[in-house]
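Task: sequence design from structure.
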């Protein structure tokens, strides 16, 4: 299947065809996502928690993100990739944002970038990156890089005032030139209104079913990440249990000398070769 472009996502949104968006951070997962026909892959800074074991996304660096993007590109050469801009790679200035967005495209092989926040400063970053010819996705609602300001990983826009603020942020980012916006952890009604008022594709994670598309973190939806599971995650598998069982079955087999003993998993030498071999050793 050909790689989808911004135009495909706009058409899908206009025609009510849902956009399927999933995270991946490594070659194998990206390969499976492409095989499954996922429309868009987010190389999210959630990689910091899922793949690097950090408690938050804040320690993730540009070097980490470039490396994750490269691996995903190798696994999914025909899938549209969004590279997430890590904490402090764009907050300081428009110039810093353009340089680092460029790295995710040029070195990482991403098709677009994503950054968090809906205020004036982030609108300015989006405008600058867009003017440099790079597609930018906005990210509003729950924004994990501002966890301290938001008081933890909490749903946003749950009262009328907060809901208006999220709607205004969505418009601000659209006007600034975002090609799409991700809305995270907001009530279904707010997700629906943002989507109805938008002229660009709105993707949701924990924002109800009315957005133009859905995102999930792959490690959550396959039941791999077991530190905590957000309310909006539907588990489609219990990969953690399956893999842990495989590891303990392997450990048991090795300890009891049951692996590798069968012909299927061992190499054999013909009897006459064994005799020659032993003779040669004696010489
Ligand atoms: O990094 C990521 O995976 C994200 C999601 C939490 C939306 O930005």
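Answer:
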């Amino acid at each position: 299947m050909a790689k989808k472009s911004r135009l495909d996502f706009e058409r899908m949104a206009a025609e009510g065809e849902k956009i399927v968006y999933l995270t991946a951070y490594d070659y194998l997962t990206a390969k499976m996502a492409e095989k499954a026909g996922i429309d868009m892959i987010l190389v999210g800074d959630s990689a910091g928690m899922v793949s690097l074991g950090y408690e938050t996304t804040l320690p993730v660096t540009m070097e980490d993100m470039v490396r994750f993007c490269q691996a995903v590109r190798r696994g999914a050469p025909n899938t549209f990739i969004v590279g997430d801009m890590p904490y402090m790679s764009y907050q300081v200035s428009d110039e810093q944002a353009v340089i680092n967005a460029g790295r995710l495209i040029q070195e990482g092989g991403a098709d677009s970038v994503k950054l968090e926040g809906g205020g004036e400063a982030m609108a300015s970053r989006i405008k600058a990156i867009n003017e440099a010819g790079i597609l930018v996705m906005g990210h509003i609602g729950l924004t994990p890089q501002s966890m301290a300001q938001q008081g933890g990983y909490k749903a946003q826009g749950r009262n009328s005032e907060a809901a208006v603020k999220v709607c205004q942020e969505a418009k601000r980012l659209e006007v600034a030139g975002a090609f799409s916006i991700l809305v995270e952890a907001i009530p279904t009604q707010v997700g629906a209104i943002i989507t109805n008022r938008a002229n660009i594709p709105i993707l949701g994670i924990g924002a109800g079913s009315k957005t133009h598309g859905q995102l999930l973190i792959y490690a959550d939806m396959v039941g791999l990440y077991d530190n905590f599971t957000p309310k909006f995650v539907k588990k489609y598998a219990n990969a953690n249990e399956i893999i842990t069982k495989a590891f303990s079955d392997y450990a048991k087999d090795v300890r009891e000398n049951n692996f590798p003993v069968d012909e299927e998993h061992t190499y054999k030498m013909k009897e006459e070769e064994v005799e020659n071999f032993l003779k040669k050793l004696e010489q």
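The first strand starts at residue 19 and ends at 23.
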